[in-house]
Structure formats: C-alpha cells, structure tokens
Amino acid sequence: MASLSFPRVLPQRKTSLDLERENFQKFQSISIAKAVHPTETPVKVKHVRSAIIGTYQEKSASIFWMFMLRQPLQENRIVAWKFCHVLHKVLREGHPQVIPDSHRHRGRLEDLGKLWQHLREGYGRLIHLYIRLLITKLDFHKRNPRLPGNLQVTSEELEAIGENDINVYFQMSVEMFDYMDDILNLQQAVFGSLDLSRSNSMTPCGQCRLAPLIPCVQDASQLYDYSVKILFKLHSALPADTLDGHRDRFSKQFRELKIFYSTIKHMQYFKHLITIPSLPENPPNFLIQAELRTYITPVVVLPPEEPLDTDAAVDSLIDTSDTNSLPGDQNDSSRNGSISPDILAERDSLIDHLHQENGRQRQELHRLLTDHQRIVCELRNRILSLESALSTKGNEIIQEKQVSQDLLKQKSEIMTKFEECEEKSKSVNEKFQKLKEVYSKLREEHISLIRKKAEVDKQLGGIKIIHEQSSRRTLEAEQRLQELIQGQSTAEQEAQRVSQARADLDEVRNQFDGVQTENLALNAKIGFITSEKASLEGDLHDLLAQKEELDVRISTLQSEAERSCIQLKADADVIFYELLLNCLSEAETILQNTMHAIDNPAISAVTCTPDYLATLLDPTMLSLKSLNAAYIKYIDDVKSRGELMKNSIRTAFALAVYLIQAKATSNTSPDITFGDRITDECKQLGSLSLIMFSYIKEIRDKEKSSLTIDQINMVMVQLDKIASLTCSLSEQSQSNNGVIGDLVENELLGMDKAIEEAAARIKDMLDKSRAADSGVKLEVNGKILDSCTDLMMAIRNLVKKSRLMQTEIVAQGKGTSSTTEFYKRNHQWSDGLISAAKAIAMGANFLLEAADKVVSGKGKFEQLVVASQGIAASTAQLVVASRVKADRNSNNLSALSEASREVTQATGGVVATAKSCSQLVEENDDLDISGLSLHQANRLEMEAQVRVLELEKALESERLRLAALRRYHYQLAGDN
Question: How do residues 20-52 score in pLDDT, each as one tens digit?
C-alpha cells in the first residue's frame, strides 16, 4: 500500500478576531469610498459617522488615512473637496488621537493644496482654501493640545489652559484670529463660487459646496466666544493702546461673521440642519469690563442624529457577496450572502454600546449646559453684589474725602481756637482746684458707702440662708403634697400645712426682693459715683495733655509758618524767573520760525504792497520802545517782571509780522537784486532781534544791561533802514506803472512791423534764388523759403487775431477808464504781453537771418529749426497771455486758438523741410571712396574719429553754454 504524503505545515485557520478585523477594515474602506464618491452631491452623514466610529474602535486614525490616501484625491476635484469635509468632521468628532495622527500627514495636505491651487476657478480655489484651514486647525491644536477637536471647553478649563498668564492669552488670541480668518475666507469663496441661476442651496451641486460650512459654523462660534472672553482678560491687565490691533482685527471679523451667519440663516438648505446663533448689533466694548456680564455665549444647535439602522447600514456599506471564502460553515455562509451570528451579535452589542454612549454624552451635555447656566447666574449675582459693594465703597471714599476736607477746615480753625484755649487754660486751673475739693468729698462718701455695702452684704448672706431654708421647706412641702394626694384621709391637714408653707415662702420672697432691690440701688449709686470720679479724673488729665499739646503745636505752627513764608517767596521768585525765561524763549522761537519762513521758497509767491508795510512800522517801533522801557524798569525793580514778559511777546509778534510782510513786499520788486537786498536786510533784522532777546535773557547779569539797551536801539535802526528801502520800492513801482501802457502799444506795433519786414525779405530772397540758382540748390532754397513764407503768413494771421482779442479784452475790462489806465491796473499781465511781443519780433528776425544764411550757403539747417521753434514758443506765450483775461465763450478766442494751431503746423513744416533738405544735400555730398587705397582709407578713418571727438566735445560745451544762456534769460525775464 502506497503511503500518502501530507504537507508538514497545515494552513493556519483565521480566528474570530482576525475575521472581525478584516470585516472592520472592509467596512471602513467601503464607508470612506462612499463618503468621497465622485458624484457632485453632499457627503452623507451615515458614511462620515461610520468613519468617526472607526477611529474610536481603532483608537487612532491609521485605518482612516490608509484607505483615504488610496482615493483619487489628486485626480478628481469632487473627491478632494469631499475629503476635506470628511477630514474636518473626523478632526472635530473623532478620537482624540486623530489630531496627532493627522499631523503626520501635514506635508501631504500641503502638496494637495498646492496642486489644486493652479485650478483657479470652481473647486480648485475652494480646495486650496479648505486645505489651508485644515492645516491651520492642525497647527492650532498642536500648539494648544489641551483644546479638543470640537473646541468645546468650560470657562474653568479655558482658564486652566491659559495658566493665568497674560502672555499665553495674548498668543492664544492671535492664533484664534488666524483660525477665524481662514474660516471666513473659505465661506466667502464658497458663496462667491455659487451661480445663483444654476447651483442654489437646494440643488445637489450647490449642497455639495455648502455642506462643509456646517463644521465651519461650529468652529467659528466657539472661536468667537473664546476670543471675547480672552480679550476681556487682556484688557483688564494691559493698557488699551497695546491692544488696538486686537480690537481692530476682532471688529473686522465680527462684521464678516455677522454677514456669514445672516447669509446661512436665509438659505433653505440649512433650515433643518443647524440653528445659527444671533450676534449682537455691535461688538462688545472691551474698554468697559462691566459689559462682560451682559455678554451671551452664542450656542450652535444641531438636530439630534437619527439612530443607525443596522440592517440597512450593513446592506448599504458591506457587499456580502464579495466576502472572503472561509473554511467549513463560514465558507457556506459567505456564499449564501450572510454573516455569521457571532459577528452579528458583536456588531449589535457594539451598536447598542454606541447608542448608550451617545445617550450618556447627551445627558452629560445637558448637565453641563444646566451647570453652565447656573454658574452664569451665580456669577451675575456675584457681579451685582460686587457692584453694590463697589458703589458702597465709593460712597465711603466720598465720605472719607469729606472727612479729610473737614479735618483741613479744623486745621485752619486751630489757630482761631488757640486764643480760646489760652482763656480756657485759666478757667481749667480754677476748675482743677474745685475738682480737687469735690474729689476729696467724693472719696469720703465712697468710703462710707463701702462700709454700708459690707453691712448690706452681711444682711444679704443671712437672707440667702433663709431663702435656702425656705426653698428646702418648699420641696418638702411639695413632696408631702404628693403623698397627701394619694391618701384622701390626710388631704385637708396637709393642705393647711402647704398653704402655711407657701405663705411663709411668699413672705421670705418678698423680704428677699426688697433686700435685692436695695442692693441694686446701692450698687448703681456706687457705680455712678465711681464713673463720675473716673470721668472727672480723665477730663482733668485730658485738659492738661491738651494744654501741653497745644503749646507745642502753637510753637511748631509758628516756626513752620515762618519757614513756609520764606520758602514761598523763594519759590515764587524762581517760578517768576523761569516764566520770564520761558516767555523770552517763546519770543525767540517766534522769530526763528519767521526766519525759516523767509527762507522757505513757497513764500516767494506771496506779495504785499509797500503802503501796507509802512502802516506796520509805527506799531513795531512802539513795541520796541515799550520793551526798552520795561527792561530798564525791571533792572531797577524786580517786581515789574510781568510788564517785561508782556512786552517781550508783543514785540516778538510785531517783528515777526513786519518781517513776513517785508519779505512779501520784496517779491513785488521788478529788480531781483533790489528784492534780494531787502530780503538780506530782513534776515539781518531777524538776527539782531534774536541777539537782543538773548541779551535780555541774561537779566541777572546787570553788567550787560547797557549792551542790551544798545542792541534794542540797533534793532530800531535796522527797522528804519528796511522802511526806507520799501519806500524807494513804492516810488519805483509808481514810475513804472506810468509808462507801462505806452510800452504795450509800442511793443505790439514793433512786433507787427518786424513780422511784415521779415515776410517781405523772405519773398525777395525767394525771387533772387529762383533767378540765380538751379538744380538741387534751387530745389532746397525753394522748399525752405516756401516753408518760411507759410510760417510768416501763419504768424501774421495769429498776430492779427491776437490784436482783435486784445481789443476785446481791453474793451471789457477798462470800463469808463482809458486803455492806458487798464494796462496800468493790470501791469503784471501787461508785462507778459510786452515780453511775448518782444520774443516774437526777435524770433522773426532770427528766422530771417537763418534763412538768409542757408540760402546763401553760409548757414545750417539746424538754425532754421531752432528759429522756428523759438517763434512757436513765443506765439504760445502770446496766446496764453490773451487767454488769461478772455471770455471762454468768445469767438475771437476760438479764432486765436485756431491761428495758434496753424502756427504750430507751419513750424512743423519748417522743421520737416529743413531735415529733408539736409538729407538731400548730404546725399549729394557723399564721399566717393571707391578709388581710395588702404593707406588713404586708414588716414581718412583716423581724421573722421578725430572729428567725431571734436564734435562731441563741442556738443558738450555748447550744451553747457545753452544752459547758462537759459538761466540768464530767465533771470532777465524775471527782472523785466
């Protein structure tokens, strides 16, 4: 018989624990896969709840992350969005170990957020913001491990987390603000991504985006509550300025959170899913600590979750047809699509346990809420009691202040009572003698009363003995009475004896009461006499002590009064001296500010007439004379310091006003040199004034008094010098205004004449060139002279329109006065017209000379360009000067603007013609290098390089020369 071969090691059968483990993992895999299904619908609660229960059963998040990382998070945006929602719920409601386990995958979350960040529309931006929120939540719980994932702690636990350390509260508030910012950013992005026409809150796609806002609302409510409580703690320990940033950031988040809550309340989707708390109209005022007791904690309420239907949950989450084959009966049961009874029993027990745990936690939550409300009520009552105590203490403080004021008044009344005390001291001596006699009488009466008291005490002892005997008899009588009651035969005899005993007892009691009352009267009399004696002796000692104390106090007060009077005089002298120095320093500051204002370029636009400046001379001079008199008076008498202080400030102000107005007057001078001279004299006056006040400050050095008076006189002399210069400026301006009207007319006529002569000469040059030249030269000269002719025609038209505009302006502005008077009255505007007319005439002559040189072959085309551009700039000045006083709706102004544009176009034609002619001449003058040898070409190249260097050097020098000429031209224009 052949032997059968068996394997040495039989396959190990799986135990019930292994099977339970496999079923649990499969259950978790299916629930997680269904939770993040790629269809655009909201995550189902039962799938998320299964994942949360798995974390408690596993006591970690390893299984959750193992199956979650297998999902297409980087390929499908819906899966990634639902993953963020499920992870948020698991972090909030899962096992406490979930947060540390999830923090190990922080890098994967960052990579996922960066990946979806590139998809800027739709879910891409939402996933990026949600990933950032989850990373912030993980970092927050890592820094604050004592806060659970759902952020629900009591006030005592929050204080324990803060460790009563203001630095911990400060850092925690900043972290909560960052957490809240990420929540608010996510909700704004979610609402901003909703298309109200296609995806509202009642469509699956809209609900898919809105569902994650429920845990966001729960986190935001807790963060808001803790932020308010922590900020009240911070404001109670830190100054308000330090927490300005915290208050601003909280106010911004408060407004955004209020909008967030209001938006959710009006959405139909959230009506039955969550109850949103109401926030107050305005944020809490953290500067008022009393508002903390009126603060109400916002509570988010979720509807109670329906219990899991175990059969439906198993059928929907576990596909029993794909279970692993098991040996024996288990294999058959798996083929039939059923689960073993042991596993079902364990599952049912687990579900029952979870239901019980859920009910217990709800009861615990209800108990905590009731305890919280009770604690809040107790705290409010405590706050009210503390406030009442605080008001009582405030009243006591007010009373203490009143008492202190009364004591101060009594202190002032001590001096008035001193004389009365001296008179009383005499009467006290007399009373002392009388009291001494009374005391001796009282002492004898006291001795006699003590003897009587001894006799009374003896009588009282005898009475007490009788009383004790009577009490014993009473007891015996009562005993006999009880015995007699039992025997009827002897009742009457015993009754008589009892009545006799009672009569004796009443008599003894009456005697005892009389003796006792007499004893009490004697004791009261003795106590009264003793108290009278003690009070009299106390009054006597008090009066003697008060007399000695008053003597010492009177001497002390007299010495203190003398010392305080001396000290007050010294302090008053020091204070008045310091006040005087402060007044003088302020006067110096006024003058220094005035000197800075004179040097400020912005004051060059300010003007003042010499006549107005002349009116300021007398008040300024009078203030200087008053200052001189006050200083001399102070040297002789120190008590006149007030007059010196008043005159110092007044003089400084008068000098400052005069300096500013003198500088403004110098700006009206047509001669810049003369104006600069006035400015220099003003600066000299300011420097002398500063030196004068510095001498006055040396008041205690009487040797410098003569120097100070001399300095005041020097300031007066300098003031007269500036006044004489401004008077000459006034005379000069009047003489200039007299002839300005004639200058305007003469310059305008000279401009017309120069333009006509230039046009005629250009026409003559054109005729001569056509008769004498030919070829390229004739073509160049013809183009240049034609363009110059067009420019002159345009300028003549512009001048003509300008004269019409000028006539209209003068007719509108002169009124009943003459034309010359109008030009005098508007002399600055007239100066502008004169300058423009001169510039146009000069430009026409320069253009004529340049054209003549170019036609004759002695000039350059660049001269034509410069001359034409100069004429265009001058005509622009003439147009601007006419437009300043013209009516905006004037027809002449429109015609003048059109003529200005024609001049600009003609100038452009001259420039373009000059450039084209220059290129034409250069093409004809090209160097023929075809027959050059190597040596000749090398030599010409070196000569060209030398010429280039010479031209560059000449260009640089000409630019410097042009800049200098422009500066000088601007200076001459300003002088004129």
Answer: 788 888 888 899 989 898 988 999 989 999 999
Give the span between the Cα atoms of 775 and 771, in whole angstroms: 12
DSSP 594-607: HHHHHH-GGGGG--
* pLDDT at 215 exceeding the cut of 90: yes
Q: What is the pLDDT confidence band of residue 248, given thresholds at 50, 70 and 90?
A: very high
Q: Would you state the structure tokens that stand for residue 591, as one six-digit string?
A: 């003058």
pLDDT higher at 176 or 451: 176
437 pLDDT exceeds 80?
Answer: no
Residue 932 to residue 929: CA distance in whole angstroms:
5
CA distance 810 to 826: 10
Using CA atoms, how far apart are residues 204 and 187, in angstroms rounded to an integer? 18
DSSP string, 483-524: HHHH-STTHHHHHHHHHHHHHHHHHHHHHHHHHHHHHHHHHH
User: Can you give the pLDDT at residue 14?
Assistant: 62
726, 613 in Cβ contact below 8 A? yes
Determine the pLDDT at residue 296.
85
Label residue 418 exposed, middle or buried (CB < 10 Å: 0-12, 13-18, 19+).
middle
Contacts 24+ apart (CB under 8 A), 905-909: 905/794, 906/787, 906/790, 906/791, 906/793, 906/794, 906/795, 907/791, 907/868, 907/869, 907/871, 907/872, 909/787, 909/790, 909/791
- Residue 301's DSSP bridge partners are 275
> 973: which 2 tokens?
């224009």
Q: Could you state, in order of their start, the residue ranges of all structural domains in the chain?
A: 24-295, 570-735, 737-925, 937-976
Could you give the CA distance from residue 796 to residue 760 in angstroms, rounded to a whole number? 12
570-735 has CATH 3.30.450.20 classification = no
Angle at 968 between CA 963 and CA 969, to 5 degrees: 95
Judged against a pLDDT cut of 90, whether residue 975 lies above it is answered with no
By mean pLDDT, which of 266-280, 605-619, 745-759 is the weakest? 745-759
Q: Is 275 helix (H, G, I), strand (E, B) or coil?
A: strand
| CA dist list (Å): 397 to 183, 325, 407, 733 | 50, 89, 15, 76
Q: For the chain, what is the mean pLDDT?
A: 76
Of the candidates 37, 65, 67, 32, the residue with the CA atom closest to the CA atom of residue 48: 32
Contact 42, 207 (CB under 8 A): yes
Find tokens 């810049």 and name the residue.
672
Q: How far apart are CA 922 and CA 916, in angstroms?
A: 10
Residue type, 557: L
For domain 737-925, the CATH class is mainly alpha
| Cα 58 to Cα 50: distance, rounded to the nearest angstrom | 12
Average pLDDT over residues 792-812: 75
Q: Indicate the pLDDT class of residue 675, thresholds 50, 70 and 90.
A: confident
Q: Is the pLDDT of residue 333 over 50?
A: no
pLDDT beyond 70 at 816: no
Give the pLDDT score at 227.
93
Paired tokens of 389: 């105590």
Residue 495 CB partners (closer than 8 Å, separation 6+) = 481, 484
**Cα(100)–Cα(60) distance, rounded to whole angstroms?**
9
